[in-house]
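Hi U.,

Before I forget, here's the chain from the pilot set. I'm dumping it here mostly so it's searchable later in email.
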Amino acid sequence: MSAFLGEVVGTMLLILLGDGVVGGVVLKKSKAENAGWIVITLAWGLAVTLAIYAVGAVSGAHINPAVTLALAADGSFPWEQVPSYMLAQMIGAILGAVVVWLHYLPHWSHTEDTAAKLAVFCTAPAIRARWSNLLSEIVGTFVLVAGLLFIGVNEFAEGLNPLVVGGLITAIGMSLGGTTGWAINPARDLGPRIAHWLLPIAGKGGSDWSYAPIPVVGPLLGGLAGTVFYNGIFEGHFDPWMWLVVLAVLAVIVLALAERK
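Structure:
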């Protein structure tokens, strides 16, 4: 298996199980209906765990453009492979969302809430406030990438790393996910959103494209911020370009404070 196919398969598994649990919780006449946020966060963590077990030895199981970009900026991943990895992740995310649609095929027509149907595929904020929502995605992905770098310098028993990373995803979801649904992954949000837009889902509404840039830009910037933090604080290494990331994050903080009501 090539690294490209590995990222396709890994991201497809991530979305199949991750969006799958959301479908089980929010769609009508599902046996998991109303199971709640804890079930969703646990299942997303386990989805990441399985994806890493499946393709970690093949592609490194980035399964997230923000992780790929952060590792390239860190110098631990070649820049020339970034476009192919991101393309593979998007393809995998779309395919995973299509399988989720097929899996719940009878349930779409029994669910009247168009927002619930969209939530199966992609994220939406609890309170719509553009800069605050962007900041939440930055913070969540900052913790993700910094956490991955923390985990990487520790030794675990063979085969344990994917479980630890899955625990990190669950912790972020439980602690920080309540504001925006914790996309922390541009492919996880944009790929299924495209699938929602294209698929003949019974009674679907719009795909909320006005919100779509936030779970793309926020994770990319947050991932870079995690790399800057780890390299600057733990490694004592700070390149001049890192100031641009710091300034961008500070600008988002200022704008989020300014939009408070």
